[in-house]
Specification:
It is globular and about 65 Å long. It is mostly helical. The protein is 63% helix and 1% strand. It has helices spanning 2-8, 11-30, 44-55, 65-68, 71-86, 88-98, 105-115, 123-153, 155-170, 194-209, 211-220, 229-251, 264-276, 293-305, 318-332, 347-375, 379-390, 405-420, 422-429; strands spanning 338-340, 343-345. The chain has 19 helices and 2 strands.
Length: 451
């Protein structure tokens, strides 16, 4: 009976059920008394919120990870981050490969849906590449962070902290263990530390670029003109999203009076770091609660954009942003198709982009309004919190723990939606609808008044 059930469900449904199962398993583990430092286990909603945040690599927390969760609880959270970041299906396929089981066509198709692969062929090799790349980058990042943490914390604690933060950064999760200094302080004590800043930022960028980009770079080295169109768009868009926000933050945000205590060097590091981390990572080296309105708006926009397809990051993705601008350019150039780097983008890509952006916008704004009505928080705080949840970022102005149970459930849904993806949920729900066998007659409409 179980085999018949699994044969009927679609790959999209398997993906959403896989993440849901991992969240529920993590919830049960975090409810165990051994998972918390105090007596008794965590309440169900607290455990569910934390498990969802870890599995969906978000980083929003109700309790400080160091002060509330025991070493076992921290290990459970780290495991959820690792599996959630790489993808439940990816880990399942990897286990099957290592156990010597044959990977059938259906499993390959599910894997293709899970990691947004362009084709089924080479999926097994791609899985092997994802595993090796992930562990190699995380290991290198942990080694670099250990050079900073071990002299400060001791060898054992320093290695554990280096490993935890390397995995959390590469998976764009944003969980940290720096609560031993001050609860929920994240990396504010390392605002001008070059080792920590560079290591964390590179890990975030590497995880957020996407495995297919790294595969393309490995194959073609630094020959940009040989890259696939997606790789070119991802690298170009990512570079621009790192450069211009950093300049804005340095020239306008950190020139504000509330940042007068920061030195010039700290402002430079803070500007660069805060342009990287909103892209679904969730670490911070400054206090977002005192950030100005324009700085908050910029951060919200960066959180909604997120990382790139086939990566550990969430959000609407850099390619969606690129498609919008390319579409605008095509209108100005009076072209019937979207063109970029000498290639023409199929119309269905733009339709998918419009669907994704609309879904994110509706849920983001609806969730923000709901938080305002339920908990009487300001619209700015609600927008920031919901953008952080649906973008799977984890940054907060400090209101997460103060929200009521209904608001926390809203954030849980937004985190889940942001991780599994809008199209995945659509395909899962609309799996029984078949494409129309015929097309209707075509007729143009005007979208504005012609002068």
């Amino acid at each position: 009976m179980f085999s018949k059930f699994t044969s009927r469900i679609t790959p999209a449904q398997i993906i959403i059920l896989g993440f849901l199962s991992l969240i529920l398993a993590g919830t049960l583990l975090l409810m165990l008394p051994v998972s918390t430092r105090g007596e008794g286990g965590a309440p169900f909603l607290d455990a569910l919120f934390t498990a969802t945040s870890a599995t969906c690599v978000t980083g929003l927390i109700l309790h400080d990870t160091y002060t509330y969760w025991s070493e076992f609880g921290q290990l459970v959270i780290l495991g959820l981050i690792q599996v959630g970041g790489m993808g439940v299906v990816t880990m399942a396929i990897a286990i099957a490969i290592f156990s010597g089981k044959r990977i059938g066509l259906r499993q390959r198709f599910i894997m293709q849906e899970s990691i947004s692969a362009p084709q089924v062929g080479g999926i097994v090799r791609m899985t092997d590449f994802i595993l090796k790349t992930t562990f190699a980058i995380e290991g290198l990042g942990a080694l670099i962070l250990a050079l900073r943490f071990c002299p400060e914390m001791g060898v054992t604690k320093g290695i554990w902290y280096a490993l935890f933060h390397a995995i959390s950064a590469f998976c764009n999760a944003g969980f940290d263990l720096m609560g031993f200094r001050e609860p929920s302080s994240s990396l504010v004590y390392y605002v001008s530390d070059p080792i920590v800043n560079i290591a964390i930022m590179l890990l975030i960028i590497c995880g957020g670029i996407g495995f297919f980009v790294w595969s393309d770079v490995q194959k073609n080295k630094f020959h940009f003109h040989h890259y696939r169109l997606q790789t070119k768009i991802v690298l170009t868009t990512t570079s621009l999203l790192l450069l211009f926000p950093a300049l804005f933050l340095f020239l306008f945000e950190f020139s504000q009076p509330q940042w007068a205590d920061l030195s010039l060097g700290q402002k430079i590091w803070a500007s660069i770091f805060q342009s990287v981390t909103p892209r679904t990572a969730g670490f911070n080296t400054v206090n977002y609660a005192i950030m100005s309105g324009p700085g908050i708006l910029l951060t919200i926009l960066l959180m909604l954009i997120g990382g790139s397809p086939g990566s550990t990051a969430g959000g609407t993705k850099t390619t969606s942003l690129a498609m919008v601008f390319l579409c605008i350019r095509s209108v100005f150039q009076r072209r019937d198709s979207i063109q970029c780097f000498g290639r023409r983008v199929p119309p269905e890509v733009l339709r998918s982009t419009c669907t994704i952006l609309t879904l994110y916008a509706v849920l983001f704004l609806s969730g923000s309004v709901a938080l305002c009505l339920i908990d009487d928080v300001t619209m700015s705080q609600a927008l920031f919190e919901c953008a952080s949840a649906i973008g799977t970022v984890g940054l907060s102005t400090g209101i997460t723990a103060q929200l009521s149970a209904p608001s926390q459930l809203i954030l849980i849904f937004l985190m889940y939606f942001g991780r599994v993806g809008g199209l995945t949920l659509i395909y899962a729900v609309a799996s029984g609808h078949l494409p129309a066998p015929s097309q209707m007659p075509q007729e143009k409409i005007k979208t504005q008044r012609s002068q």
